[in-house]
Amino acid sequence: MTDAEKHKLEQRILKRFHKALSAYSLIEDNDKVLVALSGGKDSLCLLELLARRMRIQRPLFKVEAIHIRMENIHYETDTAYLQNFCSGLGVPLHIVTTRFDAYAGTKKPACFLCSWYRRKEIFNKAQELGCNKIALGHHLDDIVQTALMNVFSQGHFSTMPARLTMRKMPLTIIRPLCLETEADIQALAEIRQYEKQLKTCPYEKASSRADIKLMLAEAEKINPDAKYSIMNALDAEGKLVE
Ligand SMILES: Nc1ncnc2c1ncn2[C@@H]1O[C@H](COP(=O)(O)OP(=O)(O)OP(=O)(O)O)[C@@H](O)[C@H]1O
């Protein structure tokens, strides 16, 4: 990629990030945002963008990061790398270790339990740290794929919103990458040389998300803007703010 192409990519990512912040009122003065950092390209990109934005005068907000280690899942996350990454951005990192029992009297799949216990730790830590917002690294492709999966399997038009105010906790979930494409984030990850984390989860298998991705690629042959069209429909129906 030439320097001019890199510059163009960075400008597009920044523009979409700022558009998401203002269109869905994601950040306000005095917010304290806890970024959920998995170590994957999406949340690394999210943390970089929020940490840089934090240094600008308005709005005045603080950023911290959390990484959850699941003791019983052998994710080889390089925590020293995450620590360095956060230090370089001037962001405190909290590493929390937890575990779940995949066989304990429940028929819920391991992936559901893992994600449920991870969220629980993130919510608890956010409240302990006095954070009012939690930022997740989902991007436009994730949001559009989820919408299609919900239409096909759940019978309703809904998705992961850009901003979700929790009813039972004083917390708001935000997704500042909601207008970024996965391809752009992937390209940025290559430019920045984000370290790839080794995932060796024993429960991970081909998901229905992979099938939806293929289907969406087919739809893009008919209309290259198909995913933006689905995103516009979600926006028009008020599905991106709850
Ligand atoms: N172990 C973790 N610790 C903290 N946050 C996490 C962890 N795993 C996932 N998350 C948060 O949940 C989001 C979605 O998780 P998912 O596993 O679907 O990641 P992904 O689409 O592969 O994104 P990423 O590239 O950030 O890993 C992540 O972007 C991150 O914000």
TrEMBL record:
Domain of life: Bacteria
Residues reported to bind ATP: 36-38, 42, 68, 137, 142
Any single Pfam family the record assigns to this protein: ATP_bind_3
GO biological process: one example: tRNA processing
GO MF term (any one): ATP binding
Domain tRNA(Ile)-lysidine/2-thiocytidine synthase N-terminal: 32-191
Entry keyword Transferase: yes
Keyword Transferase set for record: yes
Keywords: ATP-binding, Nucleotide-binding, Transferase
Protein name listed in UniProt: tRNA 2-thiocytidine biosynthesis protein TtcA
Organism of this sequence: Marseilla massiliensis
Source lineage: Bacteria, Pseudomonadati, Bacteroidota, Bacteroidia, Bacteroidales
